[in-house]
Amino acid sequence: MGMIGGSLDAFIGAVHRKAAALDGEIELVCGAFSSDPKKSKATGKALYLDPSRVYGSYAEMIEKEKQLPEDQRMDFVSIVTPNHVHFDPAKMALENGFHVIIDKPIAFNVAEAKALKKIVDKTGLVLALTHTYTGYPLVKEARNMVKTGKIGKVRKVYVEYPQGWLSTFVEGTGNKQASWRTDPSKSGAGGAIGDIGTHAANLAEYISGSDIVEINALLNTVVKGRQLDDDSSMLVKFENGASGVLLATQVAAGDENNLNIRVYGEKGGLEWRQEEPNTLVVKWLDKPKEIIRAGWGYLCDAAKKNTRTPSGHPEGYLEAFANIYMAFARGVRDHKAGKTIDPAKYDFPDAQDGVRGMAFVDAVIKSATSNKKWTPLKV
Amino acid sequence: MGMIGGSLDAFIGAVHRKAAALDGEIELVCGAFSSDPKKSKATGKALYLDPSRVYGSYAEMIEKEKQLPEDQRMDFVSIVTPNHVHFDPAKMALENGFHVIIDKPIAFNVAEAKALKKIVDKTGLVLALTHTYTGYPLVKEARNMVKTGKIGKVRKVYVEYPQGWLSTFVEGTGNKQASWRTDPSKSGAGGAIGDIGTHAANLAEYISGSDIVEINALLNTVVKGRQLDDDSSMLVKFENGASGVLLATQVAAGDENNLNIRVYGEKGGLEWRQEEPNTLVVKWLDKPKEIIRAGWGYLCDAAKKNTRTPSGHPEGYLEAFANIYMAFARGVRDHKAGKTIDPAKYDFPDAQDGVRGMAFVDAVIKSATSNKKWTPLKV
Amino acid sequence: MGMIGGSLDAFIGAVHRKAAALDGEIELVCGAFSSDPKKSKATGKALYLDPSRVYGSYAEMIEKEKQLPEDQRMDFVSIVTPNHVHFDPAKMALENGFHVIIDKPIAFNVAEAKALKKIVDKTGLVLALTHTYTGYPLVKEARNMVKTGKIGKVRKVYVEYPQGWLSTFVEGTGNKQASWRTDPSKSGAGGAIGDIGTHAANLAEYISGSDIVEINALLNTVVKGRQLDDDSSMLVKFENGASGVLLATQVAAGDENNLNIRVYGEKGGLEWRQEEPNTLVVKWLDKPKEIIRAGWGYLCDAAKKNTRTPSGHPEGYLEAFANIYMAFARGVRDHKAGKTIDPAKYDFPDAQDGVRGMAFVDAVIKSATSNKKWTPLKV
Amino acid sequence: MGMIGGSLDAFIGAVHRKAAALDGEIELVCGAFSSDPKKSKATGKALYLDPSRVYGSYAEMIEKEKQLPEDQRMDFVSIVTPNHVHFDPAKMALENGFHVIIDKPIAFNVAEAKALKKIVDKTGLVLALTHTYTGYPLVKEARNMVKTGKIGKVRKVYVEYPQGWLSTFVEGTGNKQASWRTDPSKSGAGGAIGDIGTHAANLAEYISGSDIVEINALLNTVVKGRQLDDDSSMLVKFENGASGVLLATQVAAGDENNLNIRVYGEKGGLEWRQEEPNTLVVKWLDKPKEIIRAGWGYLCDAAKKNTRTPSGHPEGYLEAFANIYMAFARGVRDHKAGKTIDPAKYDFPDAQDGVRGMAFVDAVIKSATSNKKWTPLKV
């Protein structure tokens, strides 16, 4: 693995490195950690990398690594830069034969996302998007329960992603995370809606097994001086006839990372909260609610395969993240073994999810500025 | 107290009787429990009433009781009939000098509600509406925290009322509760939106201290064959600039009576769930969340005054209901003592809340059938 | 009902009155609320009693009421005085033909308890003891699950009753509740162990269906200056071979009234907490945990019969208390109808439970002062 | 790092490997994964190790690695074998200059533990014991709150470790984990008490900052045919005057890995549950309870330093485990830099904790077989 972005003072770079390292299957061998070569070097040194493989730019990294013998060069790049530096390195990596794993959202806008998807389709390489939350075992259990009809035809989907860390004007206090996320030239057209709304939409579609097709949204910039939206709520309709509510806000004072979802079908309901991810509550029409817990033998194969510890030994965010990496790595290995790659088989978010995410941001913004009640979400 | 409706096989009548009896301040002295005189008699007997004061109709009750000496006759009527039999008995009672406590919604439509309010204003009598949930002590604490600025200016209000009991076509199985609630000739124009949506709206306005002024709603009839809506969700805007989401559904399979609300301000957030009503969670920007619990010395006066037991001795739905009755009784006593009645002083839902509830139902239906995004809620 | 004790400034008297009033089946008709006749009169007046039936002493009340015609006099007495004034009024009431309901513990010591039981047996009258917590519907469900073998043979019972209100020397600050409870001349030989330990023991025996037969206890007086124990913990053995832990402490700083119990059998486990009494968690060996909730159709008859509201409309402490009163009232009614009374049939704590409670206090104190590991609990 | 034990079909070996790998600071370079050389080879291959460094026995590994140049050989061994194979490899590693990290309990009995501690003291090398649960950030916060007097002088400590996985005779079904743990020739004199009771004792001493000095225990073998205890409960006294209850059982049907602790002081109480490790509840005498959450700025330095993700991004068991590894690695690095090692400085469980653990098992067994109430726990 070669990393693009993720110098020592970044947040998500370290998360990717730990997630990749956890299972002993992926080794960080090189990186272009910053557009500032000094910072890149310092990061590489702190990570015990061979100094000759710590590069000053992603372009240099891709070129130089390509010149190494195949069994020595990196297999894939991990792109953990702000959104406006997703497309170019991903494109270059793919065009030079490297697989790509990339932090969400996939790109800066729909056009970039679609272009990337085309390159993936053409090259047959593997591209995974770290919609982390679908990596949780009980999210996979929930998806499987819906798919196998346990709760009947889905009627309602409520998905929420409330955070509180942007309740004040933190971007004015030098907070690096806040600064680029609230800057449209780096983040793209969406603020909260891009940063976390896309996670909520992806989770809802992943569990319900159905796409969002119409949106009726309210988008706010609550904190004075902020350049992008920090609060959103919307009514949504799904392809299968279900409807629901999606909200994503970063001004829910005191909330942490409270992504949660409820899905109700004809026969039962499901409830999952990311902050206590090892519990899935199932509600029934005429019998006791059930507490599904990670690590038990009664779970579906997908849930079991994405679990490392016995029940009661809690797994968390890094493990969910690592599950995305492991699924991606299986794809990479199969590609190296000459197999054709069908992303669905590996159960990781792919380029198509990336396109949908960007289209979601677009549709929300369009809806929010329209007097019409419903705006289609088409890809 | 004389009761109108509430024969032995009804649900809410018994609730009213227990709530009224709990504190030993109110005595049931007469009743017209059913339009079927036999049923009314049987109910009166089971309740140990003097047979001469068990009446065949509310009209008879009001007339006969009025003829009794003032210190012997009932002081007020409690109306617990289906919605279409709210207005007439309430009007007649008020016009004959009896105070009225009435199950929500106040009437069948806005016109009736406004007419009742006029009679209340003219007669100076006391009318209370049993929006039970505002009777909980920690709801009063939440309201007080908002009012005193503890969480700062309110930005977001999320209020939900999911139930699951109408997930199937129970009105086709002889369920009496379901039958009248899903029958527009008895329930009014709103199904779920009238039955529980009005509670959610009332709670949101009570705690936030601000009125809902605009609505953008989706209304569904999910269960085939049902005559009224059984599912709703909407974006809402408040007078003070806050926005939020309100949902009320009766097809949330497996949910019980899961009314809950979250209010976020500039400085903190509040979270309360009716099913565990003795806990109020407060979230702060930079310090630990707090668990406010009923029965502690640190609570506001309104919370303390509406609590009967020390902390850790849970109170519930009947106690909240009884709090509405006790507030109403204070008003009745003051009126008897010759004082002018200002409903705000007693902290019970009044005729104006009733009018707002009916206007809410109207606005939701109007919004749901409109292509325009926002529909005003005006009274 | 005639009440002995329970003047306006007492805590438990009001609880008894509300519990008795809730269901409209029991009427307070007279009282001797205080040994101070003025206080008794004031209390009677506040409760709207006929002044001629507010008495200056319990002896006067029993004598005068007995002289009233049978259909006018009180049916039973409710004794809510401190522990040292339980035996005499109970004895006198029974010997004069009045049934008795009495706050726990039944008496000041084992001898008094046994003497009372003898009188009950001899007179055939009804005596109930308000071990409130067995009145909760889900406690009855738990008992039924054990009884019907759902969780298999019981192996472990953990019961805890931590409170925090005696963490400081509150009896030195004029706190009336604390003062008599920590005064051996009023409370008896046990402090926390009598006040709340007896509840814990009773609950454990009620749910497990088996008696505690051996005790290995540690008893502490943690707060300096206190005259009685305020903290206890003990290992216990049950008649059926199960073992467990019982703890009752009043110095668990910040705890409210956190009575809770876990019972594990060969096939499953049960968990119940008084502070959220409408939830019972069931754990299984190889399938999801279940959340049993009050008010559902799947519950046992005893649970259903002791519930007033549909699921999700929480009931609490007063309702549990009222359930004891209602069961007692059924006994009283049957006695009046000439039936022989078998306490087991009515499912209320009776004189035998009272004797066991006092014997429990004795055994704990004996164990705590002994170097021997195990002390038998015999009745 | 060189690993001893932990072939592919073992549980705890993989846990150690992932914990060591997570932060990119420790590399697995060699191993003797099984006493079966074929199994060892297969494991090494699956872990991408250089085949020349996959050894047939720990003795071979220690000898051969010692012959490698200092900058190429392993720095330390990680011992993850059953308890009876802890002492010999640890002794040999230390005597050959390798640091040691070892799964708990440290050895087979007190004598071995003390002997190991002597070697550690003599060699000045680093030995860490993976009492995982002290690696959780909020356990460190709890310890710090006690240490800094936030909850006042400690009065009560309740620590529980209920598991349910040995509720049936699983060792008769070929379950490898169960088989060695219930075999006294591999596990030592203690069953549940050694396997999980030592964790509970360690956690209680770590948070309370005080040693257990007296024990009054009941030890059971609940499941028929089992060779060792599977259930224990005991009253305990601490050096600082506090008392409490410790229970460790593996027949709590349906429980997972429910380690939890409550500590009450004069001014407040703490409550932590391993299964939801990112929450610490603090209870106060006269103000709202607080919910301390991992990842917030208000935490103590030790808590912050042992956290990888922002609040609301849950960390779990593997992260706590990794924290022990990271603390150990800091010690190893300092030793390599020529510094003298004071285990207290690194905040990892050390040889002295190991000795206390074995002495705890001994004292419990002694107490359980004695008629005397209290048995001292001395080291």
From TrEMBL, chains A, B, C, D:
Signal peptide: none
Domain Gfo/Idh/MocA-like oxidoreductase N-terminal, chain residue ranges per copy: 11-130
One example GO MF annotation: nucleotide binding
Chain segments annotated as transmembrane: none
Segments forming domain GFO/IDH/MocA-like oxidoreductase: 140-271
PANTHER family the UniProt entry points to: CONSERVED EXPRESSED OXIDOREDUCTASE (EUROFUNG), OXIDOREDUCTASE
Protein name as it appears in the record: Gfo/Idh/MocA family oxidoreductase
Lineage: Bacteria, Pseudomonadati, Bacteroidota, Cytophagia, Cytophagales
